[in-house]
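Lab meeting, item 3. Inverse folding demo.
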């Protein structure tokens, strides 16, 4: 069947056309066209402005749709009959006014083409993003259970346990800021552009490669608590106090100060993620570890997770999304949408009943 998938939960607008077939653990995908528009307009503000993001989605969606229809060669048919059999759209979590733009766009097309809509949980998209390859063909394969997914993005830090395929139990999460949010806020304190994760990571990598050590230590919050929860707000505040202390003693931060702070912050944040993930692998006798979400692009996190799984006697298979699919995209929405559509035996809600749910959860 042919599928259109739409992503607009935050500051990326994505439109993908697929050909999909097969079952829950054997599905085959062929990407016919894939277009993503990232909103650079927020860079200057140090964060995403929902009203601006909504406006950009409204402008981008029809442009990307037309481009996608042409590239996938579905356009000619599109004029006469429905070019797809199903529309998948992110309905949460995310910024509600942005989610609505995607949903309203999907509803309009569904009406015009008389096709069903499968609403998609954005976080399930991230969980399933490791199957995707940005362009071309790919397959969903059977993963050994139990599966543990570390979801790390701008809005989420969660450890998700899957005992049965496509069923989720959140066993730990951040009590306050998401890890990506902490990267973004620390970057802002250092005068780096938004989104800050890649900039912090670049500075930290250079320090690591040079074999340097930071001249101070930042806390690793909740590292030794018995649960699988995280906290990043205190770490962020410690960075703020450290900056104030350096500025008071030496004046404005030097480039070396900034690099040292980025390095030690990255070490602290990633250590918290890795330590708790390793503990959960032991406790739940995990066979497959998935690390997904925007922060999964972080090189240090990838390397540390490789070490954890290689050193573990349980022979844990480690999966990451490609760099393109670690960040928000509509390929993962199509994968999650198609799999849910066949899981629910093609039963979907009435298009008009689909609502944006900013705080939608993957599980209780
Ligand atoms: O999944 P995503 O694109 O959007 C959300 O659903 O939130 O994640 C975006 C987050 C941002 O906070 C960004 O700074 C962070 O992922 N990020 C990184 C890196 N690349 C992106 N954080 C650390 N290191 C990176 N290399
Ligand atoms: Zn995301």
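The presenter then showed the designed sequence:
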């Amino acid at each position: 069947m042919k599928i259109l998938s739409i992503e607009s939960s935050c500051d990326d607008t994505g439109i993908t056309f697929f050909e999909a077939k097969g079952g829950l653990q054997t599905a085959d995908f062929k990407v016919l066209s894939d277009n993503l528009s990232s909103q650079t307009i927020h860079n200057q503000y140090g964060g995403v402005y929902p009203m601006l993001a909504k406006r950009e989605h409204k402008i981008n969606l029809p442009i990307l749709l037309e481009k996608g229809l042409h590239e996938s060669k579905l356009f000619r048919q599109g004029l006469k009959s429905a070019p797809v059999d199903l529309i998948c759209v992110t309905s949460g979590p995310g910024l509600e006014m942005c989610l609505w733009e995607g949903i309203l766009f999907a509803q309009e097309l569904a009406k015009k083409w008389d096709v069903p809509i499968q609403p998609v949980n954005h976080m399930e998209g991230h969980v399933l993003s490791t199957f995707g390859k940005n362009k071309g063909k790919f397959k969903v394969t059977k993963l050994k259970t139990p599966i543990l997914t570390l979801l790390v993005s701008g809005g989420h830090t969660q450890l998700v346990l899957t005992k049965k395929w496509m069923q989720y139990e959140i066993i730990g999460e951040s009590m306050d800021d998401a890890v990506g949010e902490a990267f973004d806020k620390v970057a802002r304190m250092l005068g780096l552009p938004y989104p800050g994760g890649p900039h912090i990571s670049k500075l930290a990598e250079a320090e690591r490669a040079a074999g340097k050590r930071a001249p101070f230590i930042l806390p690793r919050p909740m590292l030794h608590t018995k649960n699988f929860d995280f906290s990043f707000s205190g770490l962020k505040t410690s960075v703020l106090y450290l900056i104030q202390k350096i500025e008071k003693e030496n004046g404005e931060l030097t480039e070396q100060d900034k690099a040292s702070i980025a390095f030690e912050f990255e070490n602290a944040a990633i250590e918290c993620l890795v330590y708790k993930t390793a503990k959960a692998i032991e406790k739940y006798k995990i066979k497959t570890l998935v690390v997904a979400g925007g922060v999964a692009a972080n090189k240090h996190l990838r390397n540390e997770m490789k070490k954890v799984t290689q050193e573990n006697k349980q022979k844990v298979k480690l999966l990451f999304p490609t760099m393109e699919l670690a960040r928000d995209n509509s390929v993962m929405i199509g994968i999650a949408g198609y799999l849910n559509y066949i899981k629910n035996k093609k039963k979907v809600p009435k298009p008009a009943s689909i609502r944006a749910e900013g705080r939608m959860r993957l599980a209780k």
